[in-house]
Amino acid sequence: MDLTVHLPDDLAVRLSADGADLSRQALEALGAEAYRAGRLTKPELRRMLGLETRVALDGFFKAHEIDESITMDELKRQLDDLDRLGL
Q1: Radius of gyration for the alpha carbons in the chain, expressed in angstroms and rounded
Q2: Which of 11, 65, 68, 87 is most enclosed, with most CB atoms within 10 A?
Q3: How far apart are CA 2 and CA 60, in angstroms?
């Protein structure tokens, strides 16, 4: 899905003054907020952002000051996965 965001030109210039990619900033902000709100899982966030490794996702969490403590739902999913694997 493509998403278009309209910004006043003066704000767009100011927000990208340091050469920042505004499209990437918007994608990361959307992903960070959705993860914080529990609407995305870690694998979904990785896929959304195109991050190939867990280390890259860890860097994203650190850069965006996201507490990546495991939630109860994630813990339950992991335990269910282990049960299915017989571990």
Answers
A1: 17
A2: 68
A3: 22
Q: Is residue 50 part of a domain?
A: yes
Cα angle: 68, vertex 73, 78; to 5 degrees: 85
The DSSP annotation for 24-66 comes to: HHHHHHHHHHHHHTTSS-HHHHHHHHT--SHHHHHHHHHHTT-
Task: Quote the CA–CA distance of 11 and 7 in Å, as a whole number.
Answer: 7
The parent domain of residue 31 ranges over: 9-85
Q: Which residues contact 31 (CB under 8 A, 6 or more apart)?
A: 40, 45, 48, 49
Domain count for the chain, please give it: 1
Q: What is the pLDDT of residues 17-56, one digit of tens each?
A: 888 899 999 999 999 999 989 899 999 999 999 999 999 9
Structural domain contains residue 44: yes
